Amino acid sequence: MSKRLYIETIGCQMNVLDSELVVARLLEAGYQLVDHPRRADTILLNTCSVRQHAEDKVYSALGRLKHVKEHHPEKIIGVLGCMAQKDRELIFRRAPHVDLVVGPGQLAQLPALLERVAAGEGPQVEVSLDRKAGHRQVVEESFAPYDPARSVEARHGRHQAMVRIMFGCDKFCTFCIVPSVRGPEQSRPPAQIEAEVRQLADQGCLEVTLIGQTVNSYRGIDAGRTVRLSDLLERLHGIDGIRRIKFVTNYPRHMTPDLLQAARDLPKVSPYFHVPAQSGSNAVLRRMKRGYTAEEYRQMLARIREAVPQGAVTSDFIVGFCGETEEDFQKTVALVRESRFKNSFIFKYSPRPGTKSAVLYADDVPEEVKRRRNNELLAVQNAISAEENRPYLGRTVEILVEGPSKASRRRAEEGEVVQLTGRTVCDRIVVFEGPRALVGRIIPVSVIQTDAFTLFGKV
Ligand code: SAH
Q1: How many A from CA of 285 to the centre of ligand 1?
Q2: Is there an atom of ligand 1 within 6 Å of 174 CB?
Q3: Whose CA is nearest to atom 3 of ligand 1?
Q4: What pLDDT digit, counting tens, does each position of 55-69 carry?
Q5: Does position 40 have pLDDT exceeding 60, yes or no?
Q6: Whose CA is nearest to atom 5 of ligand 1?
Q7: pLDDT value at position 365?
Q8: What would the mean pLDDT of 299-314 be, rounded to a whole number?
Q9: Would you say the CB of residue 15 lies under 6 angstroms from ligand 1?
Q10: Which pLDDT belongs to residue 411?
């Protein structure tokens, strides 16, 4: 069996990390990574279900692969991740040329499943239980933790890494598919996380980003004692070699004083908080079952600003949620205007089969109204982002240099001066010219120009 692997990832950071871990594991099993499906024997799509658009992308990619499979029936095509968990056998019906379907809670089985397909045992499906299929513990066990050893070769850069500290989600926001496709919330044991971060530090990693669906509700257990995110940050802070620690995504109700204190007092912890608000209207927040009011969100924001004045806050919003009136929407606009987020991710509501909102409420905001609200909110946010970046003009910022910018990636040669990008502790993107040798270093850069999305700098 020839083992050339191509993998494509759609979706969030959790998926990016899963793909990286899958690659690490398969490299170990003798696979070799290639950069085009044409050159691959095994083609994997790691998929997302959070909005219809993400699923459409996967089905059209699968449509394109049909042709490939017709000419090369020996190639193995696999669908991994959230859409695999959600659609299961339906994927074979819609795309009969798919050989295997593996949910995010079953990735550890992948090498064995690939061997079964190669041995001619036919299509393989491995998914986890439904949330309501049995006792919590049984369902939890069916979403098996996946944490194979980290490998520099599989990572997207030697100097940065994501580290999962939690699996799943228990929030059940009415719009969201994540709790059903990623399973019950489970915190990884602190000692395991610490060992992984030490391993990453030994591999030359300078920055770790701790990830979880609601990362600040982390509750680890160590020797019978509860370890909160703030405690974990303190433990990781002591690891030599690690210079920066970030964490995403935060849930507004768990932005507790101990966490803010940790972000204020631990110099390696980035004063950067991604805390999705979703809406500025209490009626909408209630239907979303977010568990807070707009006033409570504002109070939470005030606590962040007070504890960590140099910090940056970012948010997510959904526009056109079921029953959202123009007045509701204007309340969201008002929240964005006054909150001064560094940036916001704005999404049009997309009903997800099986979620509470899809069952209980009509998707009654017309598509063109969703689009208009999306554009309007984005324009308000972008103007604020530009204003928030402007004071950086003339300042010197410390950045971790990540690599050549997209534009210069293709033509760059070793040693040549290229356009590089890096990030500040607050996750601001800085673009500047410099030698490639700067990649992986933390350096001061002076800012000579700014816009809504980027700081332009000079070494
Ligand atoms: N728990 C994580 C990931 C959730 S998905 C978090 O809170 O960030 C990321 C974002 O996608 C959410 O914050 C929300 O703004 C958006 N989203 C989730 N479900 C959606 C849906 N059905 N339609 C549109 N946007 C959605």
Answers
A1: 13
A2: no
A3: 213
A4: 999 999 999 999 999
A5: yes
A6: 50
A7: 98
A8: 97
A9: no
A10: 59
Ligand 1: which residue has its CA nearest to atom 2? 213
167 lines ligand 1 (CB under 6 A): no
Q: Please write the tens of the pLDDT for every residue from 351-379.
A: 999 999 999 999 999 999 999 999 999 99
Mutation choice for ligand 1 from 12, 177, 347, 378, CB with most ligand atoms inside 8 A:
347
How sure is the predictor about 1, in pLDDT bands with cuts at 50, 70 and 90?
Answer: low
Nearest atom, ligand 1, residue 274 CA: 8
Question: What average pLDDT does the structure give for the chain?
Answer: 96
Tokens of 200: 């990453």
**What is residue 449's predicted lDDT score, i.e. its pLDDT?**
98
Torsions phi, psi for 457 (to 5 deg): -130, 175
pLDDT in tens, 396-429: 999 999 999 887 765 555 556 789 999 999 999 9
Mean pLDDT of 199-208: 96
Q: Which residue has the higher pLDDT, 408 or 442?
A: 442
272 lines ligand 1 (CB under 6 A): no
Work out which ligand 1 atom sits closest to the CA atom of 176. Answer: 19
Q: Is 175 in the pocket of ligand 1 (CB under 6 A)?
A: yes
**Has residue 179 got a pLDDT over 90?**
yes
Ligand 1 nearest atom to the CA of residue 251, by list position: 7
Query: Which residue out of 15, 17, 82, 318 has the highest number of ligand 1 atoms within 8 Å of its CB and is therefore the one to mutate?
Result: 318
Give yes or no for residue 249 CB within 6 A of ligand 1.
Answer: yes
